[in-house]
């Protein structure tokens, strides 16, 4: 029994009344990536458009939770909406690899069962989160990559397939050109700061359902100009995506550092094994452990009471939330 149900029952018994327990609270938190996002780069119209897409993802996930659906269905629904949004680096609008294509990574995990599914280097599946979920539910494996993941997708007719260029957007092509130019100038010895928005934009969702179950999903195009089959943290269970029965985390940021710190698992292990409040665990990993190694980024997560965390050490992180008390919102910068 969840804590508030037990509390409610004992209060009702003490008062000599038998009343139906109120619906258990649910919670949802989403991100559209952390990174170099500054007010002068983002016009008011663009900000309104991408916040509308964050809101649509919250609507999709929260509708599942409010009708008593599972956290797993809620994160799937929210991430699908974000994958279809050209504003974020996942599905449509994913960044380009060095050879001008898209290789998509995604993962999904259910906390109380520790079931998980993940895919990397996917090229033709419109919603990589659905392929990750199919791996979890319809294969004996957890993690499939590249041609093998595509071959597995061929066995699932319910998955929509698209040509790789369907994921193209002009904005991402310009980022690839800028990244290549930067690479050339760096090779010639110049020191150039990161091009704005070139790296991050991964999407993710974490939900707590009315049964007290937690699930998480993350989806990404990875890093602009990536090569050699590079895979980041997002699809790696424990690094960018993790849930146990007390905590769920979806990360976004410089993936190599999240891999090296197994960041999502580190946060959830502190909560489940050491009893750390999720706020302290997430704050320490995201704002101390990762920057101490030279990495940056953020994460979203929640615990079994619906406490939501959204730490980041970059200038912005696209994010949205629906708290257990029903309050909801979206934000981009540090200040709302
Ligand atoms: N973490 C992702 C990766 O390294 C990038 C991101 O968050 O945008 O692939």
Give a verbal description of the structure.
With 336 residues, this protein is α+β, with helices and mostly antiparallel strands. It has a single domain, classed as (Glycosyl)asparaginase (Glutamine Phosphoribosylpyrophosphate, subunit 1, domain 1, 4-Layer Sandwich), CATH 3.60.20. It is built from 9 helices and 12 strands. It has an 8-stranded mixed beta sheet. Strands 7-8-9-10 form a 4-stranded antiparallel beta sheet. Helix 4 links the parallel strand 3 and strand 4. The longest helix has 23 residues. The radius of gyration is 20 Å and the shape is globular. The model has no long low-confidence stretch (mean pLDDT 92). The site of aspartic acid (ASP) has 15 residues, from strand 8.
The ligands found in this model are:
aspartic acid
CATH topology: Glutamine Phosphoribosylpyrophosphate, subunit 1, domain 1
Which runs of at least 5 residues are low in confidence (pLDDT < 50)? none
Compute the number of strand runs. 12
Radius of gyration: 20 Å
Major sheet characteristics: 8 strands, mixed
The CATH class is: Alpha Beta
Total helices: the number is 9
Instruction: Kindly report the spatial arrangement of strands forming the biggest sheet.
Output: 4-3-2-6-5-1-11-12
How many domains comprise the coordinates? Answer: 1
Which CATH architecture would you pick?
Answer: 4-Layer Sandwich
What percentage of the residues does DSSP assign to strands (E)?
15-25%
On the 0 to 100 scale, the average pLDDT is: 92
Overall shape: it is: globular
Fraction of residues in helices? 25-40%
CATH homologous superfamily heading: (Glycosyl)asparaginase
């Amino acid at each position: 029994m969840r804590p508030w149900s037990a509390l409610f029952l004992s209060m009702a018994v003490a008062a000599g009344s038998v009343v139906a327990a109120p619906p258990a609270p649910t919670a949802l938190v989403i991100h559209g990536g952390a990174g170099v996002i500054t007010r002068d780069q983002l016009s008011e119209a663009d900000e309104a458009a991408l916040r509308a897409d964050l809101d649509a993802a919250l609507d999709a996930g929260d509708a599942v939770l409010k009708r008593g659906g599972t956290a797993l269905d809620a994160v799937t629904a929210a991430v699908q909406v974000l994958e279809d949004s050209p504003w974020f680096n996942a599905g449509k609008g994913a960044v380009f690899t060095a050879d001008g294509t898209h290789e998509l990574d995604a993962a999904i995990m259910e906390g109380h069962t520790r079931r998980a599914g993940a895919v990397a280097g996917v090229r033709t599946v419109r919603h990589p989160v659905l392929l990750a979920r199919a791996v979890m539910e319809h294969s004996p494996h957890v993690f499939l990559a590249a041609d093998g993941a595509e071959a597995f997708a061929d066995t699932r007719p319910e998955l929509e397939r698209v040509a790789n260029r369907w994921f193209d957007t002009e904005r991402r092509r310009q980022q690839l050109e800028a990244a290549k130019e930067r690479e050339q100038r760096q090779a010639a010895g110049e020191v150039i700061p990161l091009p704005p928005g070139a790296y991050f934009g991964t999407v993710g969702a974490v939900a707590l359902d009315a049964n007290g179950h937690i699930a998480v999903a993350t989806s990404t195009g990875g890093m602009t100009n990536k090569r050699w089959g590079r895979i980041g943290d997002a699809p790696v269970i424990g690094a960018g995506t993790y849930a146990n029965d007390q905590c769920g985390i979806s990360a976004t940021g410089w993936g190599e550092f999240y891999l090296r710190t197994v960041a999502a698992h580190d946060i959830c292990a502190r909560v489940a094994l050491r009893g750390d409040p999720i706020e302290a665990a997430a704050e320490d990993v995201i704002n101390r452990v990762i920057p101490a190694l030279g990495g940056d980024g953020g994460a979203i997560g929640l615990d079994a009471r619906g406490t939501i965390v959204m730490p980041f050490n970059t200038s912005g992180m696209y994010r949205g939330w629906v708290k257990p008390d029903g309050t909801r919102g979206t934000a981009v910068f540090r200040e709302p």
